[in-house]
């Protein structure tokens, strides 16, 4: 009761803020209310890379394949495809047939006609990532697919400074007929199916919509998925509504026979038409306290850990000893926890004159910084125990992840850090208590951060860690979307952020170190030919011992050069009110809002007033 007395003083302000964001009452409609901790950047799949936007877009756009919602271990199934792909023995030719009769949501761009999804729409989606004019954050990743002729044509466009021609034939990207698409790859790709299941990025898109909206396309996503965008107030509110043109699709899944939870969910929902809800309202609430209070007050139906950070600092109140608190349990609130297929990483800009470079003294500086970081304290103090230490770039639940792997990346040893700095000339020459660079110039690190309460906690830990080894640091504060833009442009020196796997192949974790992906997934701009050779080799090998050994070598190179300090794999704590049913956290993917149900009457019975 003391906790709720503490809450009472700020509850009214929180409630007022959420009401201002969403003034309309439910009116009996099934509305799911969730929160993001960070603002979205837009809804054009070819131009986004952040988790928050990528959580919205797969509910609007549909890829060829999807992950089964309940299957553990994960299983890929057709989404808009009519069946599994036809694959050549050398894994270079992948042919996919689409289901006929799938239609886009109605939009003015179609001028009153009903627009069917066709194979050319997927060709067009890939081409948009290759068009230099779009500056797609996806291109460095798409380039690794080795689609025959696509990268060559892009280079030709750049070299000749000409306009990208969307009608230019690409050998490896062809719509054979209205409902058949063929991908021809220049190198074998045994796991190409996982790329085709990236529904948050590679959904079909109609060319006439892009041409109709022009540079406003990020504000007008039009797809074939279960929802459509109803309202968007940047960095404040996103509202999706049921797509009335969505085809008849019914709940189905394939949980394992011994999966009690999965079988129970399937028994309850099998055969139900989806989506089961009418609307999703996403409020952007960056600070932990108002977000937690909004959940307690029923203004938010769920705190789904990955994008809403769960209870955050209130975890010990919400789930003492790993169980739902009795007072919350009496209200019917449920919770689930799991280690995410994600990682928090601190990256060093390898092109920065202070922390970048490949010479021994630069490597020593990064490794010393890594050794100074007290990750266990970070987990205990800032993360309230909701994480496990990371030993490499590879994330849990993916191939290549070994829970027994141990490396220097996971060490905390400030004495060794100070010795490394002394050895390579980072010493205090003027007696002011701070080290200088080997050439005698001041050593000052610039750490990028965000203006939130939780960020300030991390900043203080960072400052103390560096102070303990005699290194001065300053902070470059900005909103997360703006920091991401600067990071992509190579204008941040050091920044910490998270990354989530979009599929089961652990090689995606190494995208961050792949030289050709600099400025895309590779924020550190790490460029080491020896590493790239390993990456290219593991791309064409089937899973097995030889590929596993390449994973091990790649991990050790990452430790040796330390372009990133992997810190933790986060634990998600998802909490939801009893009027929400059917939730199960996805392992890799983002789309699940169409697979849960909401009972408005139960919400009313609980005394929740939303108008």
From TrEMBL:
Keyword Signal: yes
Domain Solute-binding protein family residue range list: 75-518
Major location (coarse): other
Any one GO molecular function term: peptide transmembrane transporter activity
GO biological process, one term: peptide transport
Protein name, as recorded: ABC-type transport system substrate-binding protein
Matching InterPro entries: Peptide/Ni-bd, SBP_5, SBP_5_dom
Homology family: Belongs to the bacterial solute-binding protein 5 family.
Location of the protein in the cell: Cell envelope
Gene Ontology cellular component terms for the protein in this record: ATP-binding cassette (ABC) transporter complex; outer membrane-bounded periplasmic space
